Prior knowledge:
Strand order of the largest sheet: 6-7-8-3-9-10
Largest sheet: 6 strands, mixed
CATH class of the largest domain: Alpha Beta
Distance between the termini: 49 Å
CATH architecture of the largest domain: 3-Layer(aba) Sandwich
Structural class: alpha+beta
CATH superfamily of the largest domain: P-loop containing nucleotide triphosphate hydrolases
Strand content: 25-35%
Number of domains: 2
Radius of gyration: 25 Å
Number of helices: 9
CATH topology of the largest domain: Rossmann fold
Number of strands: 20
Amino acid sequence: MTQTVTQNQGEMEAFESYDVELRNVFKFFNSEPAVNGVDLDVLPGEFFSILGPSGCGKTTILRLIAGFETADAGKLLIRSQLMTNVPPYRRPVNTVFQSYALFNHLKVWDNVAFGLRLKKIRSEEIQSRVKEALELVKMEGLRSRFPNQLSGGQQQRVALARALVNRPAVVLLDEPLGALDLKLRKEMQVELSNLHKDLGLTFIMVTHDQEEALSLSDRIAVMNQGKIEQIGTPSEIYEQPRSPFVADFIGDTNLFVGEITEVDATNLQILTKTGLKIVVTRHSDTPTGLSQAVVVSVRPEKIQLSLYQPSLHINCFEGRLVNIMYLGTHVNYVVELTPDICITVMQPNTFGNLPNLNTRIYVYWTPSDCLALPE
């Protein structure tokens, strides 16, 4: 009996260690699954991003957590409380939208205070909490302005303050920086990261911007067609993708389709459909079946270039330089290996002379710099 009680207590402690939980959640629109059996857990204080292309179901998940949509099957819990019949206004979450959704007829102060007044919070507490929220986002000095008198970045700060003033357990961010120009978006990414660290709140962000997710998140869920393909830290998602979709969607990569022809204790050899022989280092989850169909992923920054043939016998191929893209900090080269295969190589800009187009050139990489993934 004692052992059973102890075991149940341990399960309960583990169960209560998440701020948000989705258990086999489904959501259908016109009989099509927008969310297809999703499981995920978000830890307290975590910056968790849901990343994927348009239409993959990521925004639907955010709306399910917020209560704007209802799951057709499965369970959704916030701080161990089942949310099935809990309306949005009673959930301990607040949402920051891409469009800001500010009231244009209200000043900054009144926009932030609006939710507290609806809850009939005491006037003294409203004053204190709104002041605190505006100071957090560095907008206290603009409290008397209307939204149309603010820049896009300032409006986004007000939207954040309005979410934070309610002291939610979870802040939901729906493409929060998508309406900003590139330079301001970079600045706001830093501010959002600092704000998250200062507050210690749980942030769940939906985005299609891979760089944004990689730079801000503690963990990322990559979605595709209503399902989660992989959950992991930014480095895990980038360096150890578990599927060709994740490898291709996160950053840039070169993909080669082929089959395994040789396997030993450390490496496997793959013959691509275009006749290239690629050697890949084995890992614990690397496919190893002879004749098994696989996809080899090689990141552009892992590939080296040489105008002269290197003294290498593996993963070294002759090609023709067909395009050069000068991007300031680095240069992207497109090399044609065969009439059907071109690969992208990214090299840091070292201020040297760039080779001419149509130059014969060699590309090479080590077996540990590529991955073999199940097709």
